[in-house]
């Protein structure tokens, strides 16, 4: 068997995966594209292992490690995507660029922290009994005078 056949197939798989990572906006499809790229690398490792007639079969052993890493990556990636979808309601990548919540509401503890911050400098032990730095952000509805 010629080395060109699996190498060309691996290049096609890798380019398809790269296109999927760069062009797709759904997080699940991006994870599937990463898996395509990893499988293209695995195909190359096995093909070169057979072509070089390695007695230790290092390419095949490295392929097993790559498959293990890919399985762990997809498990953690899917868990993160499911949590983000549960919290935000979407897995669209363009809408998930900001990790901070945008609809944060002011609570009584936030207003008390702002009041402490105006009396004491940031990080002053008098502002917080535990000695933690106080929060100087203003809550919604307060004017910045």
From TrEMBL:
In the record, biological process GO terms are: ATP synthesis coupled electron transport
Pfam families for this protein: Oxidored_q2 (PF00420)
Reported function: NDH-1 shuttles electrons from NADH, via FMN and iron-sulfur (Fe-S) centers, to quinones in the respiratory chain. The immediate electron acceptor for the enzyme in this species is believed to be a menaquinone. Couples the redox reaction to proton translocation (for every two electrons transferred, four hydrogen ions are translocated across the cytoplasmic membrane), and thus conserves the redox energy in a proton gradient.
Its lineage opens with: Bacteria, Bacillati, Actinomycetota, Actinomycetes, Kitasatosporales
Q: Where does the record place Basic and acidic residues bias?
A: 134-145
Name of this protein: NADH-quinone oxidoreductase subunit K
Q: What is its EC number?
A: 7.1.1.-
Keywords annotated in UniProt: Cell membrane, Membrane, NAD, Quinone, Translocase, Transmembrane, Transmembrane helix, Transport
Region (Disordered): which ranges? 102-145
Q: Give the reactions, separated by semicolons, that this protein catalyses.
A: a quinone + NADH + 5 H(+)(in) = a quinol + NAD(+) + 4 H(+)(out)
Which GO CC terms are listed, alphabetically? NADH dehydrogenase complex; plasma membrane
Can you tell me where the transmembrane regions are? 61-84
């Amino acid at each position: 068997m010629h080395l060109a056949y699996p190498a060309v197939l691996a290049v096609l798989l890798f380019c398809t995966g790269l296109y999927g990572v760069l062009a797709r906006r759904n997080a699940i499809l991006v994870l599937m594209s990463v898996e395509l790229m990893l499988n293209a690398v695995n195909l190359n490792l096995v093909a070169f292992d057979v072509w070089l007639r390695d007695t230790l079969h290092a390419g095949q052993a490295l392929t097993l490690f790559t498959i293990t890493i890919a399985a762990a990556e997809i498990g953690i990636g899917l868990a993160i995507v499911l949590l983000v979808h549960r919290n935000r309601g979407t897995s669209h990548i363009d809408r998930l660029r900001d990790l901070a919540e945008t609809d944060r509401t002011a609570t009584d503890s936030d207003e008390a922290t702002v009041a402490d911050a105006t009396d004491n400098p940031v990080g002053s032990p008098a502002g917080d009994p535990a000695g933690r730095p106080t929060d100087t952000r203003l809550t919604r509805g307060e004017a910045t005078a």
